[in-house]
Amino acid sequence: MGENSRPGRTGLWLLGARGSVATTAIVGLAALRSGLVRPTGCVTELPAFGSAPLPGWDEIVVGGHDISGTDLHKTADALVSAGVLPVGVVSAVAAQLTAVESELRHGYDPATGGGDQAGEVARLAGDMGAFARRHDLERVVVVNVASTESPWPRGADLDDVAALDAALAAGEVPASVVAACAAVRAGCPYVEFTPSTGIAIPALLRMAEQRGLPYAGSDGKTGETLLRTVLAPMFTERALVVRSWAGTNLLGGGDGATLADPRAVASKLDSKSRGLHALLGGEVAAPLHIDNVPDLGQTKVAWDHVHAEGFLGAPVTLQLTWSAYDSALAAPLVLDLTRLVAMAHHAGQRGPLTALACFFKDPFGSAQHRFDHQVRGLHEWVRVTTEAAGGGA
Amino acid sequence: MGENSRPGRTGLWLLGARGSVATTAIVGLAALRSGLVRPTGCVTELPAFGSAPLPGWDEIVVGGHDISGTDLHKTADALVSAGVLPVGVVSAVAAQLTAVESELRHGYDPATGGGDQAGEVARLAGDMGAFARRHDLERVVVVNVASTESPWPRGADLDDVAALDAALAAGEVPASVVAACAAVRAGCPYVEFTPSTGIAIPALLRMAEQRGLPYAGSDGKTGETLLRTVLAPMFTERALVVRSWAGTNLLGGGDGATLADPRAVASKLDSKSRGLHALLGGEVAAPLHIDNVPDLGQTKVAWDHVHAEGFLGAPVTLQLTWSAYDSALAAPLVLDLTRLVAMAHHAGQRGPLTALACFFKDPFGSAQHRFDHQVRGLHEWVRVTTEAAGGGA
Amino acid sequence: MGENSRPGRTGLWLLGARGSVATTAIVGLAALRSGLVRPTGCVTELPAFGSAPLPGWDEIVVGGHDISGTDLHKTADALVSAGVLPVGVVSAVAAQLTAVESELRHGYDPATGGGDQAGEVARLAGDMGAFARRHDLERVVVVNVASTESPWPRGADLDDVAALDAALAAGEVPASVVAACAAVRAGCPYVEFTPSTGIAIPALLRMAEQRGLPYAGSDGKTGETLLRTVLAPMFTERALVVRSWAGTNLLGGGDGATLADPRAVASKLDSKSRGLHALLGGEVAAPLHIDNVPDLGQTKVAWDHVHAEGFLGAPVTLQLTWSAYDSALAAPLVLDLTRLVAMAHHAGQRGPLTALACFFKDPFGSAQHRFDHQVRGLHEWVRVTTEAAGGGA
Amino acid sequence: MGENSRPGRTGLWLLGARGSVATTAIVGLAALRSGLVRPTGCVTELPAFGSAPLPGWDEIVVGGHDISGTDLHKTADALVSAGVLPVGVVSAVAAQLTAVESELRHGYDPATGGGDQAGEVARLAGDMGAFARRHDLERVVVVNVASTESPWPRGADLDDVAALDAALAAGEVPASVVAACAAVRAGCPYVEFTPSTGIAIPALLRMAEQRGLPYAGSDGKTGETLLRTVLAPMFTERALVVRSWAGTNLLGGGDGATLADPRAVASKLDSKSRGLHALLGGEVAAPLHIDNVPDLGQTKVAWDHVHAEGFLGAPVTLQLTWSAYDSALAAPLVLDLTRLVAMAHHAGQRGPLTALACFFKDPFGSAQHRFDHQVRGLHEWVRVTTEAAGGGA
């Protein structure tokens, strides 16, 4: 890399490309590229990232897989009705949506294509590679924003490629892992934005590292967990002992329906709880619920009740209610991650990008859950990477 | 100072020594000294302070001024009834309360002693000095926890000692300033724990510095403001634009009654708002109320409603309700500040202790309101001061 | 009146016809008439009103006064952007909006027409009468939904018509009273939906009664006050003693801006507090705030904190947060009141319609604030009036 | 019964007599009898009950069963530490506690006495009868405040005494039913204050009626459900369509631990949900959780989130947080029910006392869940019963 070397044209390949998060990211990227909106919610547009060698909004090309066939324009219209997307913006970027629509391919569907998982890996990897060639891309960052799967405990035992191949041959592998295999096979950096298994099996992680691929995850930290990793350190820094931290999440939309499945919700609850216990210790009572409340549509409401003990045993209680469109919180982070992973890849970084911990509930390769420490780590990494690329102040 | 030099016996002289915060601090210190309770809520007992040269709980001797004559035991009993203090602890430390009771002196009362403010300064300074000699103290840290006064704009113009003396001669000086003059005159480090003027007039600050005295303030950051300075950076680090941050505080007790006076509340509201605007910029709508609700007794309830704008203009709302005994939050910080200021004084530090910003709503000498940055600053200062004293890891 | 006599074609003349509440009512009425929407929020569509002789949606014709000249379509579009009105509905009723637009006349504007209030009364009454003749209406119900005015204490002393005429001649009369004079002069039943003075001066009330006109008011009970008059009786029926009931209201929109004026807010706060003290007695601490928070747009957020004392002094606390588009809560009540007042007028009822107390924060002619008792009173009145008209089961 | 006939000396036999609710009721009754406290929280002390022929506080004698052996004084002290009972009151009534202590007998314990349920019924009935004779009581009202049991579906099939006897012989009957059998056998009116089965099996209900016994239940309506049955009618009377009503309950104490058992919680959740669906229809999404949070001690915190649809589909949201000591809410209702059931028994009423519906989550013999209608029903019944007894205004 020369001075001020920049990552260049970068693909963003979305797994679950027709879902709410993906559609919001696609519409938002188009709007940013067209200068229609301010980059509110985009971390990489903050001053601290001003001289970082990131791909510009107009250097990112989007494609992806999905098992749904619903047209992007239709999903975008539904998100307008739900209040997530502004009507004017969606109509202004209609042509860009059409362009992305033409880059979407049928994903791996366990219900129909389950029989030949090895073949499906090859097919998906082929789609990613063709996309890169078609658009002359330096790299394609694959980001999983598909529906949450249930935990796959067996994955932790798949230590070598042969074992993984055997599992594929047996048709036992979850969809997120099939897609992550394809990404690694196709030489793509990977971001796990859901709590699904995805790339997180030993054989795949090793393969990614060997091929010089950086990866990051898992489970985007957008709402309640973000709050928790900001607030829990406040209690500990004031020497207040948190005794219980109870939470209830109400959500509708597709996410609510997926998480109404007790197996899928198990992944999510695990992921959400880990940070809290890491920050406060295991003795905190922390009941947590996720309820499917369809009438809330795209809105996600989280209520937390914290009970702490202070000086001479005096009680302190804190209640929080967070209400937001989860897709609108997640989408800009997907774009930020695409840029940052592209920068890392361009800089020759490989393996888990621990500096991206602030974006995730359950960060790969990091035990750091404190948001303030995570943010400092991110800034430091950006500074160092920028300097190495010949940039910076 | 030699290796591992320690600050030694330290006085804590409380202005408003018979109030709820002071009584809670006095009872708590006695309980800590006797090993009756764990140091929950005491920042200086966290691991980061483990090797710092702080006075031990048994090296701190308490005295103070108050214009009320209510016996400490009586106030302590009232705090037991209110739920702030545990009944067993108060009876176990009764003898220590009696000892402190004997160290309390009548404070400066504008209603009766207004005529001769210069004489009152001398009298108060005399009380402080006699206390130091009586107990053979290395220093006496004066901490103001008396009732909040209204703002005193004239104070900002008192640039030299002559002007201050003239104001004293004219009997125009607020009680907190009279007491702060006495503290400086008596060679005592000073902590302004309320939003009153206290030491914060140019002539006094300069005098303190000249006499080698460190000082810190103002207005202890215990509840709602603490939350705000923790949460506001979360929004900015996620590039979410806060549009409004509305707050309502309900409080009873003496504090509620004092703040029912619109002039006194003005000090408090100024102090509370400053941090928010510093963190988010001045364009945030931030209506704020403090209501006297006597039936809440010692409980303070704060409700905050935050409205932010996210990606593509999507709204985010956060509501917080904080409920706690304010005295129980403030008291351990008073003890922490006594220890830390003693350490600073022993180390020869003078002037505003900006490293203590995390303890205050409106920190002297610092524009830093972010709690995470403040905490880092504190830890760094403790590390450096500890090393300079020959301690540390 | 014969058997099953019905009130027939009825005018709804809106004071403040271009505001958010009026526009929402106009769009909603059009949508109901066209069968585009279900009558959610319309009390008069509940089963209890099934056989009442009310004018049908297609028998109500709308006109009104406003001092703004902003086109209804434009206001409707703004309400679509704000999320209050569904985009499809507004476009489907565009022609009906145009029709109403042609029935709007310039209102009385103190800033410009202040000089000749008697002449203005005559002009406004003329507009109302012409409207009735133009559409061959049985009656015109005038409903004030214009901006809240400050209290007008002098109004209470205007006991006879001569005194009122003198005040008009002197140009001293608030706009709402000028318009109410016009309504009475024109023989129109009147509904005061705001806390402004309107018809509530002795001379006008007597004149209305003499002319056989029913009237109702004041200040529509839509949100926080509705909750309070539902919940306060729960405490009293359980013998729990409410000690404090604190409230904060955050609102944007035009209403927020109007109520940022401390004189206007005084009317509103009076009106809101009256019911609570009537239900719980005067010893309840009840601080109440209304804050203008422009970024909330049409959303109104109310937070209430209730502290009660139970058995053996045990505390009970209840917190409420209510969030809604106030215009969407008010608009259907405006339509309900139009129908119910038309029914009363048709039945020959005159003077204050105390049976409509459940619709108001500060009901004319009634000291009953309990919502359950008010609802029972409404149902009983509807039953009796329906039977008298020859209808009912 | 003659004129102004009064029910006379009445026993209150508590099942679970050493628990928090029972102890609070016992202490409170003693304090009321001694005139130490005002009857806050006691419905029967409201003006509407002023002339009703109820037993006086000094006419109620308390005894009971429990399987725990913890002394009442000890439980009372624990409730003082927890903040539920005032320290002064407990010490002032110590002698009365000792008197009640001497009236407590060992209850039926499935863990140890499971073998001979018929014998246990006889033993428990014997205790109740002996208590009545010992104190020369007109009747003994048995009130179940023991721990919640899991549902017992088989109970609904026990139509005749033979079947019930067979189940007892087989040792299959839950503890609450064993105790209710004893109560009926001993000729005692019965109140089911928990969601356990208790008297609610066909054979027992018929037997109670035949023996001239009134009964009431089930599951005291103290907190969240009370709020729901007050607020749900507000929405329906305003024609607002509730789409979801989500709830989370956090509780510690013994109740929390009992309800951590998923089988016990099933009873409670059933009981809590029934009213909501009755009031709003079955289409409301109503996820509900009860979490054991031991550090909350006696405090019960309930959070409800209501989402409704208003005019033209506009959303309305309401959040509620209720925080109280559940025992302090339940105890006065236990005393009220004792008095009211005594009055009913004295008046010769038998079978389900539907007029007492306002006290229960799941009222026996009534489908009326609206609190306002229930209260009206109670008042009407008291009026009629009072008049029949020769009293009243």
- Fourth-level CATH superfamily of the largest domain in chain A: NAD(P)-binding Rossmann-like Domain
Shape of chain A: globular
Oligomer class: homotetramer
Biggest interface, residues from each chain = A-B, 54 and 54 residues
Beta-strand residue fraction of chain A = 15-25%
Count of runs of 4 or more consecutive helical residues of chain A? 14
The biggest beta sheet of chain A, please? 7 strands, parallel
Number of strands of chain A: 11
**SSE run of chain A:** EHEHHHEHHEHHEHEHEHHEEEHEH
Largest sheet: spatial strand order of chain A: 3-2-1-4-5-6-11
Q: Give the count of structural domains of chain A.
A: 2
Low-confidence stretches of chain A: none
List keywords for this structure.
homotetramer, 393 residues, alpha/beta, Rossmann fold, Dihydrodipicolinate Reductase, domain 2, seven-stranded parallel sheet, four-stranded mixed sheet, 43% helix, Myo-inos-1-P_Synthase_GAPDH (chains A, B, C, D), Myo-inositol-1-phosphate synthase (chains A, B, C, D), Myo-inos-1-P_Synthase (chains A, B, C, D), inositol-3-phosphate synthase activity (chains A, B, C, D)
What does it look like?
The structure is a homotetramer of 393-residue chains. Chain A is an alpha/beta fold and 393 residues long. In chain A, helix 1 (20-33) links the parallel strand 1 and strand 2. Helices cover 43% and strands 18% of the residues of chain A. The first copy, chain A, has helices at residues 20-33, 72-81, 87-92, 94-101, 110-113, 117-134, 161-169, 175-185, 202-210, 224-237, 253-259, 262-280, 326-346, 371-388; strands at residues 10-15, 60-66, 104-106, 139-144, 190-192, 214-217, 241-251, 288-292, 299-309, 315-325, 351-352. The mean pLDDT of chain A is 94. In chain A, the strands form 2 sheets. A 7-stranded parallel beta sheet of chain A has the order 3-2-1-4-5-6-11, sandwiched between helices. Chain A is built from 14 helices and 11 strands. The first copy, chain A, folds into 2 domains: 10-220 and 328-388, Rossmann fold, CATH 3.40.50.720; 224-326, Dihydrodipicolinate Reductase, domain 2 (2-Layer Sandwich), CATH 3.30.360. The longest helix of chain A is centred in the last third of the chain and has 21 residues, at 326-346. In chain A, helix 10 runs parallel beside helix 12. Chain A is globular and about 65 Å long. At the A-B interface, helix 1, helix 10, strand 10, helix 13 and helix 14 of A face helix 1, helix 10, strand 10, helix 13 and helix 14 of B. Chains A, B, C, D: One of its GO terms (biological process) is inositol biosynthetic process. Chains A, B, C, D: Its EC number is 5.5.1.4. Chains A, B, C, D: This is Myo-inositol-1-phosphate synthase. Chains A, B, C, D: Keywords: Isomerase. Chains A, B, C, D: Residues 223-327 form the Myo-inositol-1-phosphate synthase GAPDH-like domain.
